[in-house]
Amino acid sequence: MKYRYPTYEEWLACLSQAERDRVLKLTEQFRVNGCAAPELWVRSEVSEDFCQFATYLLLTRIWRCEIDHSWSETPETWIKEFSRTVGQTRLPVFDDAAAALQRLQEAQVSAADLGAVARLVAYSTAFGVLNLLDEGSDRNAVGETPGWSLRETDAEGNLTGRDIGGLHESLLSIHEESVKAGS
Question: Structure pTM?
Answer without folding.
Answer: 0.84
